[in-house]
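Hi R.,

Here's the chain you asked about this morning:
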Amino acid sequence: MTEFRIESDSLGNMKVPANCYYGAQTQRAVENFPISDLRFPRRFIRALGLIKESAARANVELGLLDEGLGQTVCKAAAEVIDGKLDDQFVVDIFQTGSGTSTNMNTNEVIANRAIEITGGVIGSKSPIHPNDHVNYGQSSNDVIPTAIHVAAADALTNDLLPALTRLRDSLAQKAQDFDHVLKIGRTHLQDAVPIRLGQEFQGYAAQLTAGIQRIEYTLPHLQELAIGGTAVGTGLNTHPEFADKVCAFLSERTGITFSGAPSRFEALAARDAAVAASGAMRTVAVSLTKIANDIRWLGSGPRCGIGEILLAAVQPGSSIMPGKVNPVMSESMLMICAQVMGNDLTVAWGGAAGNFELNVMKPVIAHNLLESSRLLANGCDAFRTRCVDLLVANEERCNELIESSLAMCTALAPIIGYDDAAAIAKEAYKNGRTVREVAREKSGLSEEQLNDALDARRQTGK
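And the predicted structure, written out as C-alpha cells:
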C-alpha cells in the first residue's frame, strides 16, 4: 500500500506519496490533469535543472542566497541535470498554459532533494523552500520560456544540425558516385530529357544545405532568454544583474552563448522564436519528404517498376509474399515528416495564443518543438545509414530507359524543327520503336549527326 505524507500549499493540505520528492502543488497538477501519457522530455527537464542551478549560483554571487543553501540547491539541481530524478517530473503536457505546474514540480523536487541532502525532513520546506530559495528571483512566466529556448537551442545545435549535415554529406557523396550514370529525367511523372543520377542527388544535397541554413538562422533568436522578466516582463522581485549572471552560467554549462532577450515583454508574451524554429524544421520535413519519395520511386520494382536504383534489403517486406522487400526506410521518413508538419501546426497555433503579457500554450509548444527535433535527428541518421549509404545505381536499367524514351526527340527539335521531331516521337510510340530507329528513317540526318544529337551525356551539361 502506498504511504503518504501531508504537504501544504496556499490552497491547503495535500496527500503526497511519501517516497516522492515533488510536493503539494505538483500533486494538485497530477490530479487536475490526468489527460495523456505525455510528459516533458529529458532535454527540457535538463534545461530546467540548468536554469535552477544557474539561478542559485547567481543569487549566491549577488548576496541574495546563503552560500551553503545555494550550494545544496546546486547539488540537487545537478541531479536533475544528470537525469537522476526524471521519474519525479510527473505533470502532463496538457496543463496550465504558463507551465507553472512544471516549474513548481521542478522547485519542489530540487527543494526536497536538497532538504534530504542536508539531513532535513522532506516536505518540511526547511531549511530550503521551493519558492523562497529555488525559485528566488524567478517566475514560471520567465523560467518556462527560458527552458524552451535552452532546450531547443541545445537540441538543434547538438542533435539535429549534425544529423542533417551527415545526411547531406552522404547525399553529396552519392552525387559524386553516380555522376557518370545517365538516366531519363521526369517531369509531371512523364519522361523528360536525360539527366545524370548524380545530378538528381546533387539537388537533394542542396535542399538539405538550404535546410541547415534555415535552422541555423533561427538559433540566435533561441539564444535570447526571457529570464529576468519575472511575471510580466518588468523584472519585479529580481536583481537587475540576475539575468545577465544566469545567462553567463547557462552559457558556461552548455557551450552555447545565451543572452537576455532585447525585450523581455516580447519574450514572455510571444513565442515567435519557437514558431520560427518549428517552421524551419517543417521546411526540412518538406525537403525530406521529396527526397524519400523520390528514392522509393526510383527504387520501385525491382522488375516491374522504375528500378533505376537498388535499395538495400534491410528487412523482409511481406508476411504473405515471400522474397518481397519494401522501401521501409523511406516510408519511415515519410511518417516522421508528416508528424513534424503536424507538430508545426500546433506550435504555430500555440504561438498565436499570446494574450496581453503572456503566452498560455507554452507546454504544448515545448513538447512539439522538441519532438520535431528529436524525430528529424533520429530519422536522418537512420535514413542515412540504412538507406542512402547503401544505395546502388542500376546502370543497365538507366541505359535501357534512356534509349526507349520518347523525350529523346527533344534534342532533334533545333535541327529538324519541333513539328517533325514530334512526328517522329508519335510514330515511335505508335509502333513500339525507339526515337533513334524512326529518326534514322525520317529525319534526313546522317548516322554521325544522329548519334551526335542523341548523345545523352552531352544533353546533361557539365
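The chain has three domains: 20-136, 142-226+270-395, 405-459.

Let me know if you need anything else.
M.
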